[in-house]
Amino acid sequence: MKKRLIKIVKKAGKILKKGYYSDKSVRFKAKKDLVTIYDLAVEKYLKKEFSKYFKEFNIIAEESNNNNIEFGNSIIIDPIDGTTNFVNKVPHTAISVGVYKDKKPYMAIVYNPILNELYYAKKDHGAFLNGKRISVSKEDDLQKSLLATGFPYSSGENVDDLNDVVGKIKNVLPHCQDIRRLGSASIDLCMVAKGVFEGYYEMNLKAWDVSAGILILSEAGGKVTNINSEEYKLFEDKYIVATNSYIHEKLLNKLDI
Question: Which residues does Mg(2+) bind (predicted)?
Answer without folding.
Answer: 62, 78, 80-81, 209
